[in-house]
## 1
Amino acid sequence: MEVQAKKLDVSPGDLVEIGDRHYEIVPDGGGGVSLEPAVTRSVAELRAARGGT
């Protein structure tokens, strides 16, 4: 079975969703881009989840 890659028109800073997961497009240091898990909660939400401060 041959797999065909989908071509995406994305730029650093864009968010994409793949299989119910969110990823941020980031520069890869070699002139291309890479996917990294997106931060989906604010700093305030993260602090609240850890007990406040």
## 2
Amino acid sequence: MTKTQLVCDKNQLNWGLKAAKAIAGKSPYDVVQMRVSPDRDYLYICAVNAEATLVAKVELLVANISSEEDEIITIDKAKIPALILATAETGKKSEDSRPMAGICIRGKEVDFTDENGAGRGVDLTTIHRNDSAEIGDPVRTIIRVKQ
């Protein structure tokens, strides 16, 4: 089985997940997705509810996409707190490196890993992706609203 690998700024990922949690409440129609930008420079953390749309932009340092279906990952809202905890600052700060997180997608499994120093590749948590949800294109929605 082929796998998709993404590496991004851990702090930006954490902030995006926190913002998504604030938007996607308990309604079954609220959705959280991670979307890789067409140029593969960014990972967009998207959340929608009946009244709001959120797009948080996370810089991608590595984007090896193995299949088109891995460009959009729908996440169970109930798993967001675990992802926030897994991507939180550990207190160990290094002046010469920025905290990075890895996202490895193999079919339905999505592993979140630490990508710094001796901990490189160590699993922080694993979730199962939800079936795809049609929420339109949150990125275009935000761009249109800004114009």
## 3
Amino acid sequence: MYIDNINNKKFIDNRCKIQKNLEIDNTGIADNSTDLTAARNEYNILKQNNRICYPDSLDISGLSVSYGRKNIINNLNITLYSSEFTALIGNNGCGKSTLIKAVMNLISHKGKCVLRFSSDKTTPENTATFAQVITEKLTPKKRAMYMTYIAQHSGISSSISVMDVCLMGYNHMLNPLAVPDSSMRCNVLKALEYVGLKDRAEDDFLSLSAGQKQMCILARSVIQNSPVMILDEPESALDITNRYEMLRTIREQADTNKCVLMSIHSPELALMYCDRLLFMKSGSIVDDIYVKDTDVSRLNEAFAKVYDNVCVGVYESTDNRKHYCIYPKI
């Protein structure tokens, strides 16, 4: 990862300070922390264990979305884990983007999404109860502290420099009138170099190609450094080289103890880079597998539930690495 350990610790400490205010004012916190002193103690225990910034899981429970009388997603339940890159795959119109938007609280829905933190069983009983944050109760700024979102399109239509787009990744850490300092700009340059856009830092964001815009937004997400990443087919506009670069970068982010959920247009890339595949059809998760623990026959069984006309093949290279390919049924 491009950020050195000292800077990364600084980011974590800054986020923890913001989280401390969040937990003490009890905004978005589950009801099992009722006493202010206990809440402070619980916060300190979690921070000492370096757990407050990185939840162990994101629990999505009873999630339902309807448009008018039509149910798009009905009572969906899944748990996503830190250090895992999870892909959401399925045909167009199956509900992938709807699920992603509901998780980010961008559309009306029923159910809830809860970030769960480890509770150390060896600590005194009065300091081990605080363990979860309900994301629907968070303000947008506080949600950005925990979760970062990359959509299929950036939504930016006004002239703004690439540098300033990436500096938005610091918004949740800054006061309304604060100005990013030189160290923040330096980190943005490193992030842009990380995604191959360092020489475009001062260019207008609107002058970038669709693929370059997505790589810029990915750099902003790296700067934001939230422990949960939610992505909605961000690779769909990229050429093949940048697709690999984007998936490699997201894979590296997951390996830094982040929880990643990504709806993906290219299942072959999901097989290559992701730990876990969620197969979605008609608003429901119809299968759930871990790639490394699954043989090719089981993969084909899972793919057949959402794709009628494809097969999955696997071969090993000379260095004993597995490679997957997807081809049409004959």
